[in-house]
Description:
This protein is of the alpha+beta class. The protein has helices at residues 2-13, 58-68, 78-85, 96-105, 164-169, and strands at residues 110-111, 121-125, 132-138, 141-145, 157-161, 172-177. The chain has a 6-stranded antiparallel β-sheet. The protein is globular and about 40 Å long. The termini are far apart.
Amino acid sequence: MxxxxxxxxxxxxxxxxxxxxxxxxxxxxxxxxxxxxxxxxAGCKSPVGTGGEALxxxxxxxxxxxxxxxxHGYYQLCARLxxxxxxxxRAGYFSAAEQWHQMVATGNAHPGDRQPPTxxxxxxxxxxxxGHVAVYVGDGRIVSNDVGDAVAGEGGVYLVPxxxxxSKWGATYLGWTPPIYSST
Length: 184
């Protein structure tokens, strides 16, 4: 894990991997806050474990995700960040919530499953109309936007514990899906 974070920091410092910035985050808190360098504290909603096998293409997606850590320009653009991680310029959905609902409707969602494979898209209900999506990179970590911003509107990209979205924003975990995007 330390190697991944060090590699990501080196790649970002070298200016590698910045991509153009779609969907949203919300805010809210509870008494359970994790940080980007600590595990989720005891009593918090349990984070995912090591997950299942990696999805096809996950190695390349995780490498892209780690190159994006430390970049900016993704304020309220979580679906675009996830699509960019998977090599797509855009998600093709209005929001993360719409993408989740489409995946549920087509039988591609894994509701409530906290054991996503590496590379999976993981979704949360945020209390607003847009929801949130991030990419699971393994070892109980996700690459997500906005969650570590010191200033609203920063749109930073962060490698954080899976449970941070729930503990910091008070979001409700929905489940995971494979990265299915239209071919157009």
